[in-house]
# Entry
Amino acid sequence: MKDPHPGSGTSPSLRNLQILEVLARAGRPLTATEINADLGLPKPTIHRLVAHLEQEGYLSRQLDGRSYLPGHKLRRMMLGVMHAAQFDLARHDVLVRLFESVGETCSISIPDGDSLVYVDRVETHWPLRLVIALGTRVPLHATAAGKACLAFMNPGSLEHYLRHAKLHPIPSGRCPAPPPCSRRSCASASRAMPPTTRS
# Structure
């Protein structure tokens, strides 16, 4: 993606999009220098663009003070894109066929930080049911889907989550397990999943 002519007349708005694209593709926090390895912009330019994106809420500074993650505005945009993708009939059709097979509410949700966000859902016709609006955020530790995500986190990410997540009691009065037990539970859940699910 590196531009052989960094001085060419590419607009700042396109440069901003390219910065976000590099960060999204990396899937990890990046410094301005690491982002610029793909773009080849002058050093003052990349730092100015990154600082502006941070100021506007599209990037957020990592705890190390040097690297960047998607900010709250960019995360909302990503969730909006996922919500719009419900009109992707192929994916939604899989959800509908699963619902027809089991007769219960079926959902697609994605992890976002220490939460799980519902992006597609087919509701059961039972009169008594839990209705969750698309875009609803729930703690990872408080749902079956969230616990499945935790079970398949890499060890470093899971350790970070257990150290920093706020494992508040959930409304039913049940308390989440303490971190040592949560680690064992995640490992057990991962081993218990069918091989086709683990792959």
Observations:
- The domain at 12-70 is CATH 1.10.10.10 (Arc Repressor Mutant, subunit A).
- The chain has nine helices and six strands.
